[in-house]
Amino acid sequence: MKDNSVPLKLVALLADGEFHSGEQLGEALGMSRAAINKHIQTLKSWGLDVYTVTGKGYSLPAPIQLLNETDILSHLHQPDLDVIPVIDSTNQYLLDRMDQLPSGHACIAEYQQAGRGRRGRKWFSPFGSNLYLSMYWRLEQGPAAAMGLSLVIGIVMAEVIQSLGAPDVRVKWPNDLYLNDRKLAGILVELTGKTGDAAQIVMGAGVNLVMRSEGAAEINQGWINLQEAGVEINRNELAAKIINHLREALPIFERDGLAPFVERWDALDNFINRPVKLLIGDREVHGIARGIDKQGGLLLDQDGEVKSWVGGEISLRPGN
């Protein structure tokens, strides 16, 4: 694995958003100005926008709040956390290690080089802009019992973000958070295990906090970040709260299934009682969204007949 210690020290020096000369940075890190410039290129490859101004040096467009493992751990009810600034994918990191991990073990990162979304899509993951978080869970009842899990994760995340100052955050079936009708966060659940065996589950989430539009062209639907909505959230507090609340909610889901969460979903549902369309391959199905059932299916009202839709290959979009 590549040694990222120098670029990470450089980020820490630039995190205040002020200008720092190449000379100052070189002195602080014990290297030449030419070497500093090489590491600045690494930061740019991580999605950081570094200004270079002759006579003034280098600066970030604004201060950034770095993840602080000590701070996060001080707020967790159980430790079991890895903070890895630069990673291929937080989900993959846990998938590779799940045989040694306890349920509830979490991993967060500043930057993912190969972040994943649904259906193998890339998850755009610039450094320090968002929250990239994954958690491992072992579900003893097996893979079938995981039905609706992404909905529970969405409920927990929406409630946490609301409690931190964004009351308009909503959930979108089956695995997104929405704000002002645009995507704020995505959830990816990856599951292994055969029928009759326990299910090994890794749940990943990415929340847009201050991500700018440069380079985000690969996102396939309208998106928003909390900063744009006028909400400033401490990333370390957000990470700790999501981890704590997931660790509390998942045993309830394990014991009682989705039933205790249906009302909470309905209160948060961005599209409830609104016209929607389901995209299933090349097909479009139109109707009015009526919430979810206890299996996690989307209830769609078509001319007074309500049918439940379930499946990983269905996308929900506004109907008009």
Descriptors:
28% helix, 320 residues, 5-stranded antiparallel β-sheet, single chain, 7-stranded mixed β-sheet, alpha+beta, 16 strands
Task: Summarize the helices and strands and which ones pair or pack.
Elements: H1 5-14, H2 22-29, H3 33-45, E1 51-53, E2 57-59, H4 69-75, E3 81-83, E4 86-87, H5 90-95, E5 106-109, E6 111-112, E7 130-139, H6 149-163, E8 170-172, E9 176-179, E10 182-192, E11 199-208, H7 235-256, H8 262-268, E12 275-280, E13 283-292, E14 298-302, E15 305-309, E16 314-318
Parallel strand pairs: 3-5, 4-6
Antiparallel strand pairs: 1-2, 5-7, 7-11, 8-9, 9-10, 10-11, 12-13, 12-16, 13-14, 14-15
Helix pairs in contact: 1-3, 2-3, 4-7, 6-7
Overview of this protein structure:
The protein is of the alpha+beta class and 320 residues long. Helix content is 28%, strand content 27%. It is built from eight helices and 16 strands. The chain has helices at 5-14, 22-29, 33-45, 69-75, 90-95, 149-163, 235-256, 262-268; strands at residues 51-53, 57-59, 81-83, 86-87, 106-109, 111-112, 130-139, 170-172, 176-179, 182-192, 199-208, 275-280, 283-292, 298-302, 305-309, 314-318. The strands form four sheets. The chain has a seven-stranded mixed beta sheet. A five-stranded antiparallel beta sheet has the order 15-14-13-12-16. The protein has a two-stranded antiparallel ribbon with strand order 1-2. Strand 12 and strand 13 (283-292) form a beta hairpin. The longest helix has 22 residues, at 235-256. 38% of the residues are buried. The model has no long low-confidence stretch (mean pLDDT 90).
